[in-house]
Design a protein that fits this description.
Two copies of one chain form a homodimer. Chain A has 348 residues and is α/β, with parallel strands linked by helices. Chain A folds into two domains: 127 residues, translation initiation factor eif-2b, domain 1 (Four Helix Bundle (Hemerythrin (Met), subunit A), Up-down Bundle); 203 residues, Rossmann fold (3-Layer(aba) Sandwich). In chain A, 39% of the residues lie in helices and 18% in strands. Chain A is built from eleven helices and 17 strands. In chain A, the strands form four sheets. In chain A, strands 6-5-4-7-10-16-17 form a seven-stranded mixed beta sheet, with helices on both faces. In chain A, strand 8 and strand 9 form a beta hairpin. In chain A, helix 1 runs antiparallel to helix 2, helix 1 runs parallel beside helix 3 and helix 2 packs parallel to helix 4. Chain A is globular, with a radius of gyration of 20 Å. At the A-B interface, helix 7, strand 6, helix 8, helix 9 and strand 13 of A face helix 7, strand 6, helix 8, helix 9 and strand 13 of B.
């Protein structure tokens, strides 16, 4: 696969029978890979956010199933063992639908195989294809999304939706990369994205590395940025999109969508079709992961809040479809999304 | 002065001819006082946020003028020397109008004195009176504001507007203290308030210390909190209120006001009358302090963003009067504030 100048990062690699994940908790100060040879450890890595971002989680889980097949070799109950590993992976994060989608795809591949050796080989091929299709889809999404941006506009993004959150290139950040390369994006602003600081640590690192200037801001400054007219589009990713277009994404997204609407700024969600969960009618059916309170109370591992203080720390929120101007997928753009338009996108 | 159980903190003290400031940058891990004997060092302390919060800055500057008078003793050009010190103090922070108000008050006191010794003594009396009037005003504000809260409601506050931001008791946090003591406030939520984390470090410390339970949240989670119906009022302080009610306050306030309006949550500003700047017609005339980029790029003194990333870091934003349901002052409550109603409050 070709890597372009503005796209030099690959967070998930499978080599020599092992899964290698760039440890995103240590970026940008350290670039270290963790190596995995069994699925429960991969599940822990997903839960502990060594890897994060809905598409990257899906791809990681798919490679986790390759390890599950390998470790089931020579066992009479190999199907049950693989199934147990799939359960570990499924339980790692509750909101990202790509995780379940990837696991179901691998389970269908395994169902068609007669031996664990055959399942391992077929899963590896399928997972690698999933990774490459993700990157190709992101490029397509980037091209489609960039066309919506009128030349000369500033864009604001939230969390990290870049190469690190996907197989490579990114979803929302892929649109921004494409928009920058096409000369349409004039300025990139990124929320620092508390409590994990994915914006400061990951998005800024990717953009600086790929030569795209970026200005970080605290979430509280987004309304001022919009009021000053510096932003034409807010562009975000998605962890799950309900059948009606309601979109679960990193905590803070829903507030941004409200602020965008109040300022006449447009709001774009960029996500692969696998993120759309047609089995969930609307956002009220999406489970929202509550993360540990210490993520808010601590800073860089040090308690910052007074002992005795509590915290409210949902990891995601749901943006109602009516606040979204466009959902951009690898198969096309859905403007003012609703149930009918989203179903039409996939020919349902 | 009596200190009540829910009001045990005094950040600014003048004792033995020196100004003592609780170093708020070190809270909550360390409770240390810094001692000041000259006005330029006090100006530096204000700029570097040893002390912060509009009313506390005003009181600190008033005591800074006592030091200016003392250090001008025996000088033939004593008035010019005091005036130079006043200039240092005035330049410390551009947005908080209480700073200018306190300095002008001290300058009028000094103008009426024949010697630096007389000026020092008169200033010390005036500054101490200002401190005590601030606390008394905050209690009055607390009582008036608490009456607006229907019993059983949750409240959300931003930044620190408590004892630490004032002479004592607090403005918005004074309303919350009074509402808690009166059994009207059911739950207190506090934004962590990036980049300085005044919510986590200061507001949580004050509330825990005074026995009021608090839940912290990242700014990005405020919209979800409101959508879940957990909040009846957002209650904030002010650094400057223009004649029409437009209110400059800590960055993030304006966004909260928009989110509150979108969710039917009411929005209260609690601030002393000295915060109202009748010379500024509306919010467009309020200068907004831009703080150093490193405040966003670093965390606890460590660079967290990738080298090469920039930051957008305004310290304040302006909330238009039409988003404010009530401005609560020590002289009374102004509902749906505008120029006429604010002028009537002070009999203009």
């Amino acid at each position: 696969m070709t890597i372009q100048p503005s796209d030099s990062i690959r967070p998930v690699r499978f080599e020599d029978g092992a899964l290698r994940l760039l440890d995103q908790r240590r970026l940008p100060s350290e670039e270290t890979e963790q190596v995995f040879t069994d699925a429960p450890a991969v599940a822990d890595a997903i839960r502990e956010m060594v890897v994060r971002g809905a598409p990257a989680i899906g791809i990681t889980a798919a490679f986790g199933m390759v390890l599950a097949c390998r470790n089931a070799r020579g066992q009479t109950d190999w199907r049950a063992r693989i199934e147990a590993d799939a359960g570990h992976l499924r339980d790692a994060r509750p909101t990202a639908v790509n995780l379940f989608w990837a696991l179901e795809r691998m389970q269908r591949v395994i169902a068609g195989c007669a031996t664990p050796e055959a399942a391992e080989s077929a899963c590896q091929e399928a997972a690698q294809a999933m990774l490459e299709a993700d990157i190709a889809g992101n490029r397509q999404m980037g091209a489609l999304g960039a066309e919506l941006i009128e030349p000369g506009q500033g864009v604001l993004t939230h969390c990290n939706t870049g190469s690190l959150a996907t197989g490579g290139y990114g979803t929302a950040l892929g649109v921004i990369r494409a928009g920058w390369d096409a000369g349409r994006v004039r300025a990139v602003y990124a929320d620092e994205t508390r409590p994990w600081l994915q914006g400061s640590r990951l998005t800024a690192w990717e953009l600086v590395r790929d030569g795209i200037p970026v200005q970080l801001l605290c979430e509280g400054a987004a309304a001022s940025l919009m009021r000053e007219g510096r932003v034409g589009w807010v562009i975000v990713g998605a962890d799950r999109i309900a059948a009606n277009g309601d979109t679960a994404n990193k905590i803070g997204t829903y507030g941004l969508a409200l602020l965008a609407r109040a300022h006449g700024v447009r709001f774009m969600v960029a996500a692969p079709v696998a993120t759309i969960d047609f089995a969930t009618a609307d956002g009220s059916g999406i489970p929202i992961e509550q993360r540990p309170e210490r993520e808010v109370l601590e800073l860089a591992g040090q308690m910052v809040a007074a002992p005795g203080a509590r915290a409210y720390n949902p990891a995601f929120d749901v943006t109602p479809a009516e606040l979204i101007d466009a959902i951009v997928t690898e198969r096309g753009v859905v403007r003012t999304p609703d149930r009918t338009r989203l179903a039409a996108l996939v020919g349902r």
